[in-house]
Amino acid sequence: MDAAGKSGVRIFPWVAEFVPDLSGLDGSRPHALFEFEERYGKGYLRGVIGRCWIHMGGRPLDTFRPVLRAKTLEHILRENPGGCARELTDTSHFHLDLFGNYIPGLCSGLAIVRDDVGKALSDDKYPLLNILNAEGIRGLLDFTLREYGFKPSQAGYINKCDLCTEIRFFLFQEGYDRSQELGPGEFYYQRYK
Questions:
Q1: What does the alpha-carbon distance between residue 129 and residue 111 come to, in Å, rounded to a whole number?
Q2: DSSP string over 150-183
Q3: What residue ranges of the chain have pLDDT lower than 70?
């Protein structure tokens, strides 16, 4: 932010409330999360959750897993009996990835080709999204158990997005190639580096 300001580039910090936290550390290098806890206290990471809205999907799952309580698979399935239509069709906040794909419902690692946005998504081209839309996490789990022999690896999950992400990483690693909706590939490769 300082470099941008010195260069005359105007910036908009996503959450300006964190500027003092960042200013309290050496700005010449990146800092690990444990350094923030060393400086600002043991509960710093957990406190971040209350200071701004964070969607618990994608990378935040790994970041905040140590400070959040896991639920059993059975609890997640009971808690989420229906489809994910609300999340997948909400356009109040969305992203486009660097490849021009629409990311539905803040679901990192799922992609809809830009030219398909606003059209009915075919089962051939978007089988996973259609399963999630109609049947939710239970449908995706059942499909992956039946078709690919998926076995849940975690003792528990933060939420349905956590389970969905694990299933999608499994499918990607297994070479799932029925569609292009698991994308971009870089989202999945980062876990296996």
A1: 9
A2: ----SS-BSSHHHHHHHHHHHHHHTT--S-S-B-
A3: 192-193
